[in-house]
Amino acid sequence: MSAYQFDVIIVGVGSAGMTAGETAPKMGVKCAMIERARVGGDCLWTGCVPSKALIASAKAAHTIRTASEFGLPATSAEIDTAPVFDRLRRIQYEIAETDDNPQKYVDAGVEMIYGDARLIDGHTVAVGERRVTSEFILLATGSRADVPSIAGLEEAGYLTSETLFEQERAPRSLLIIGGGPIAIEMAQAHHRLGVQVTVLQRGARILERDEPALADKLLTLLRAEGIGIELDVVLESANAADGVKQLSGTANGRQASWTAEQIFVAAGRKPNIEGLGLEEAGVRTGLRGVVVNAKLQTSVESVYACGDVAGRFLFTHSAAAEAVVALRNMFFPGTKDAPEIIPWATFTEPELAHVGMTSDEAGKALGKSNVRVYRWLLSHNDRARTEQATDGEIVVVTDAKFKILGAHILAPSAGDVLGQFTMAIENEARLTPDFGNLVQIYPTISTSFSQVAAEATYGQLKKPFLQAVRRVYSRFR
Questions:
Q1: What are phi and psi of 347, to 5 degrees?
Q2: Where is average pLDDT lowest: 96-105, 215-224, 247-256, 410-419?
Q3: pLDDT of residue 437
Q4: What phi and psi values does residue 297 have, to the nearest 5 degrees?
Q5: How far apart are the C-alpha atoms of 51 and 49, rounded to whole Å?
Q6: Can you tell me whether residue 348 is helix, strand or coil?
Q7: For residues 282 and 299, is the Cβ–Cβ distance under 8 A?
Q8: 113, 34 in Cβ contact below 8 A?
Q9: What is the DSSP letter of 211?
Q10: Which residues 6+ apart lie within 8 Å of 460 measured at CB?
Q11: Is the pTM of this model over 0.85?
Q12: What is the C-alpha to C-alpha distance for residues 9 and 138, in angstroms, rounded to an integer?
């Protein structure tokens, strides 16, 4: 009989913790979960769910406003955003009462403990006056918005993803600090709901981790919609007076200032590691969070970490995948490395989806002469034509032998169709012939995947040696 009360204690019940809490009982593992606030974490309350609900409302508003492009009467009435925010909250509470209901974990045999957790050692966690012990501990405490140091910003006041969706309605105007996925998604959504938006990005590009050409193309589309986006911005100070907030600094080296009703900070995330007693317990941390090895094990053998707090990939889907890997490595022979091929998407319209290497990354890793980049414009895709969505593009990156290294899609529902390339990269498939032999449904965006593969295939067939083979074959048929 085990000397411990539990087989595993899961600290934090967000995306990673919930997946672990669902999986552990199915493995026959006795489990406790500790949560200091609300079950559901960032994804349900401050991230994926409310942001995508807002994006859906904004898309509907944009479709109504631009209906003439589809041969329908357009309407440009002013939008009351209070019902929009009411709707996103209804969706949150519906999920909280069903799929994310804490009772389902209790019914599965998990003990739910509420309060602030603090590690005493590699097997003991304190929650208030109570101490619980376990063979393993899984840290899944997530992350929160990282607020840059700007003089006067605290006094002026600002929103983050933790507070943006708690508003009664959207502000009339909005300054957004940052140029990553959250910033760009919320910029387009708010603009489409009638908010005057200006994005202030420190770098020279938006979406700096994505394929450069597609990020630049999306930037052009967003600006054409009327969204203000400033690049190479260095913010120096903030102030507020008479209901107006101001940010001051430089843009491209020139002094500038911007004003709006509200400021939204979307300049990155920081791991939730404070107050957990990690240092005292011997768990090593770094700039990105808890330091883990390929098995998601920390510097303390019995303590694992997954999701945002481990700082690998800050996505809900990667957090869930890591949770399962961590549990498998704790309790079953034959350890498994945490996944490295992680797709993601920025849910603008069109969506920008990414998996594997960008063309720049591949060139640096293999040398430009060993990399092939294939592009296909959606202006040649029949489905895109029917949906007035021809501004997108598909980019596939391969090595010299056509093994797929990366794929990047700027298109409607890009996140939904990218999975084919994720599987291809995982299985070391080639664009030609492996991918080229797949028959895609017509008319879909995926039809263009075959067209990209055909470009690679027929380009090969024009080589002198293969042309010589063709002539010999023709002579003896």
A1: -90, 55
A2: 96-105
A3: 86
A4: -90, 140
A5: 6
A6: coil
A7: yes
A8: yes
A9: -
A10: 432, 466
A11: yes
A12: 6
Q: Are 169 and 82 in contact (CB under 8 A)?
A: yes
Tokens of 331: 């309790």
Identify the structural domains of the chain with CATH numbers, from first to last. 6-40+100-145+270-331 (3.50.50.60), 153-268 (3.50.50.60), 350-464 (3.30.390.30)
46: left (phi over 0), alpha (psi -120 to 50) or beta: alpha
Which alpha helices (H) appear in 72-226, and where do they start and end?
A: 82-97, 102-107, 153-156, 161-164, 181-192, 212-225
Cα angle 34, 29, 100; round to 5? 45
Q: Which residues lie below 8 Å from residue 464, measured CB to CB, with a gap of 6+?
A: none
Could you tell me the CA-to-CA distances from 241 to 156, 159, 200, 247, 301 in Å, in that order? Answer: 8, 17, 20, 12, 53
Q: How far apart are CA 414 and CA 356, in angstroms?
A: 15
pLDDT at 460: 56
Question: Two tokens at 253?
Answer: 């080296």
> Residue 164 has which token pair?
């943006």
Q: Do the beta carbons of residue 189 and residue 174 sit within 8 Å?
A: no
pLDDT digits (tens, 9 = 90+) for 289-298: 999 999 999 9
461 has pLDDT over 70 = no
- Tell whether the model's pLDDT for residue 333 goes beyond 90: no
Token pair, residue 420, equals 């084919």
Q: How many angstroms separate the CA atoms of 159 and 169, rounded?
A: 13
Alpha carbon distance 377, 379 (integer Å): 5
Q: What is the pLDDT of residue 472?
A: 59
pLDDT tier for residue 60 given thresholds of 50, 70 and 90: very high
The confidence score (pLDDT) of residue 125 equals: 98
Given a contact cutoff of 8 angstroms between Cβ atoms, the answer to whether 74 and 83 are in contact is no
Reported confidence tier of residue 470, pLDDT bands at 50, 70, 90: very low
Quote the CA–CA distance of 233 and 203 in Å, as a whole number.
Answer: 7
Q: So what's the pLDDT on residue 466?
A: 46
Among the listed residues 37, 19, 24, the one whose alpha carbon sits nearest the alpha carbon of residue 111: 24
Whose structure tokens read 């899961």? 10
Mean pLDDT across 392-403: 96
